[in-house]
Amino acid sequence: MKKIKILLCGIGIACVLSGCGRTVELTEEENEIITEYAVGLLLKYDKYYSNHLVELAEYEEEADSAEPEPEEEEIPEESPDTEESEIADTPVVDMAEEEQQASTIEEFYGIEGIGFQYTGYELRNEYPEITEGSMELAFAMEATSGMKLLVLRFQAINLNGAETELNMMNYGTRIRVAVNGESPKSALSTMLLNDLQTYKGIIGPEGPVELVAVIEVPDGTNVENLSIILRNDSDSATLNLQ
Fold first, then answer.
1. pLDDT tens digit sequence for 162-182
2. Which residue has the higher pLDDT, 131 or 140?
3. 134, pLDDT greater than 60
4. pTM reported for the whole predicted model
5. Which residues, at least 6 apart from 160, have a Cβ–Cβ distance to it below 8 Å?
6. Where are the alpha helices (DSSP H) in 19-145?
7. Does 45 have pLDDT greater than 70?
8. Does the N terminus or the C terminus of the chain have fewer Cβ atoms within 10 A?
9. Separation CA 40–CA 42 (nearest Å)
């Protein structure tokens, strides 16, 4: 329908210009006016035509109204020299110097007036040895098949000249023994009256009291070096015996 209307409009304009057979002479300016009007009229009804012209003034107003994006704050990078100088200025703490291990049993336990001395070891099938003439009741230990009892002997010595009570159970210390640099073994829990872990008695000035710590080792073990490891809830120490 729009094409028909456009065609009719063109015919009408032509008729006006022709004046029903009469020729009308137009100036150049009038021809331009009529041409612009005709072109505008044709484009108005053309569905494939759309005005893509944008007023420059409107575009500039929109550009001016747009808010500028915030600039990102630059974070200064620390130079490697600064980091190296900070590391160099940090004091190094030698833990070995700060925490020195105890060198004796009495030092680790914090016992005053009594000293401990390691006197040697023995390998046995049973401990203690009960003789036929002995009237003492004792708790005897026997090594399991293929094993030996390694008995470490210590002497508790009175140092202050007065009778001093010693109760090793009060300290809550666990004892382990390392043989020939191998993994340490926990000392056996025993009912021996002279067990180093559980001894309770009076140490007098008249003479030392023998205490022992016992572990099991494979039969045929050749003992070359021994260490005893003392540990409680807050501290530990390793003492080389031989």
1. 999 999 999 999 999 999 999
2. 140
3. no
4. 0.58
5. 112, 113
6. 28-44, 56-65, 80-89, 95-98, 105-109
7. no
8. N
9. 5
CA count, 13 A, side-chain hemisphere, 82? 4
Please state whether the peptide bond connecting residue 128 to the residue before it is cis, i.e. omega within 30 degrees of 0.
yes
Q: 3-state DSSP helix/strand/coil percent for the chain, to nearest 5?
A: 30, 25, 45
Compute the distance between CA of residue 88 and CA of residue 143 in angstroms, rounded to an integer.
58
**What residues are paired with 141 via a beta bridge?**
127
In the numeric block, the tokens 């420059």 are attached to 56
Contacts of residue 74, Cβ cutoff 8 Å, sequence gap at least 6: none
- Residue 228: both structure tokens together: 């005893």
In the numeric block, the tokens 């108005």 are attached to 44
Is 80 exceeded by the pLDDT of residue 214?
A: yes
